[in-house]
Amino acid sequence: MPTWFHQVVRQCLALLLLCALAGVGSCDARNAGSGKLMLTYTRWGDPAEMESTRELIAQFQRENPGIEVRVDVVSWEQYWQKMKTATVTNSAQDVWLMSPAYIEEYASAGHVLDLMPFIKADPTFNVDDYFPHAFDDFCFTGEGDNLRSATFGNGKLYAFTRDYNCSLLYYNRDYFDALGLAYPDATWTWDDLVAAARKLTIDFDGDGVIDQWGYGGLDYGAFASAIGAQRMDIAARKSLFSSPDMLRAVTFCQDLIYRYKVHPPPFVQINETESFVTGKLAMTVAGVWNIRSYNRSDYRWGIAPIPTDTRQRTRYAAGGGVAHCISSRCVHPEEAWKLVKFLCGDAGQRALARSGTSVPVVKRIAMSDDFLAGFDRPPRSSIPTIFEVLASPPAPRGYARGYLEYTRRTTEILDLAWRNQITPTEACRRIDEQIDAILADQYRRTAP
Amino acid sequence: MPRRNALKEWSAAAPFLAPNFLGFLLFTLMPVGVSMVLSFYQYDNITPAKFVGTANYHRLIVDPKFWASLANTLIMMLGLPLTMFGALLLALALNSKVYGRIALRTIYYLPSISPLIAVAVVWMWIYNADQGIFNSALARIGIRGPNWLGDISWAKPAFIFMGIWSGIGGFTMLLYLAALQDIPRSYYEAAHLDGAGAWQRFWYITWPLLGPVNFFIIVMGIIGGFQAFDWQYVMTGGGPAGSTTTIGLYIYNNAFSYSKMGYASAVAWVLFIIIFALTLLQWRMRQRFGGAAQYE
Question: Which of residues 250-289 of B touch A (CB under 8 A)?
Fold first, then answer.
């Protein structure tokens, strides 16, 4: 045998070995050598949440010595891309965090398990322990392309809700006190908001530049939800932005800038969260999860329900949260369910409550001292407001396939309205057109 | 015997070439092939791919977003002539005996070797409407500056300006410098003896001899411009109202945000055809000019 042949063989072997070594690192050892059963848990989150998650998982492992959980915390920006890749490449995670915006995609493709059998077999589960409607976003009947949303108990449940939040009106109490204005409350209408915001929009030094804005945050969705506007006919796959109530909410937001002049125009660069913390905004609309950020403020502040357009109007709330789901490829579904129950059960819920980032979905824990401990600046007396809002009838939802794309398109078009380049009517017309096209494309497969 | 030697040499070379070749095969050639195939499919990553023929390409023709991002990309290339002009000025200055020109060369080259993302983050602060250095400077002279990256009419110019800043002292300047240094000194001496002034020497000697390099820079600039992605992705995410969505960002969004792999592949192939055509043009012209080959 010539020497060059040996050389080639040797070099090829070396290369193979190299490849094998590189491969070992990425190989997923499902059953760790310790004889423990291995589960993976993936969620999105920031570094603070990563820390609390690791503590929580450590506790789970102490209570369940036979199970080892590998935790993976990914930033929100990369999360959905990662989960999609993991799903395609069959390396799907066992337990992972799910959002109502994306559940349909995964449920209709059969990538997540129905949790109802587990719940039915669990004698400790009592639906009354949870906020009403807390599970609705994750309940569906039918299968595949015929998947339709359902209410809890009338179908399958594809993810177990972890928290239940809503949007609120936040106001700077010091600013209201300084002008002797009455605090916002449940009786407020959009006119009351504008009247107060006008007084709170102030140019202190008279240089023509507003130093303090009465209101900030063009959250048309929050105003639309408060009046129960339906933004999408999900069954017909049609956008309803041009419906009177949706149009009213969009128009109100544009009016806040150009008609009432209480909201900074788009050429003023503001970050609503920071601006409220630093007192540049007297009022803003944001989710419950912003409480933690606002606690950094030097001002005293309070919370109120989102106002409605008229006093006669019933107030709705877009309560919603994220949930834990189990991949349908999970090899240890029983153990995965154990983990879900732990994360959404007492231990997980208390940890969530203490973090002050979210309202735990278990009412008892949401109303416990664990959650209240997160409040220092807002008066504790205003906390029941959150629960009153969460008890409101649920606002219609606008989740469908293609969520990211149509929400981005909507934002782009509304951006033009916020710049007063197009009328709200025109914006809503364009949004309807865009969303209808996206939905038609997304549900093309559905056509028989 | 020579045949066996060639084989022997090849066998020694192969393992060294293999990693690079495998990498190219695995991470470039294969994805390119797959994207070609995918461009004829509807594929969302979750459900199985469905063959749709040339539907993705038909759709692209009527997709206003595609044309808008193509237009955005072209508009953001408008800084190229200014970049070239500035780079030529710098090269001319550095080509003369300026004191400390080695240090200056390094300084001018810095933007090109700084990490793209770091540059983007710094410029986001420069353009910040409230605390940015631009608007602070403008405020000094009584002008209220716009919210550069948040304003539909100012976001594109902001990127063009950034492009000029980063392009002026980098590769383009070096190309000019090399071309200038290649021009035989004797031409200038002869012209000088004939009584040609500095302007005439530039206009009748330097400028014509820079022709090939000018063409090379323009074509490379346009090819680079079509691939614009990083800054827009980091600084505006394509906003406001989609006004800075480049074709590259549009492909990325469709593929990885909206999970329209098939459509994104179709757009990518159209982009490939555009760039390929430009490259062909560049090759053709290079054969005609002959000279510019040395700069590559």
Answer: 253, 256-259
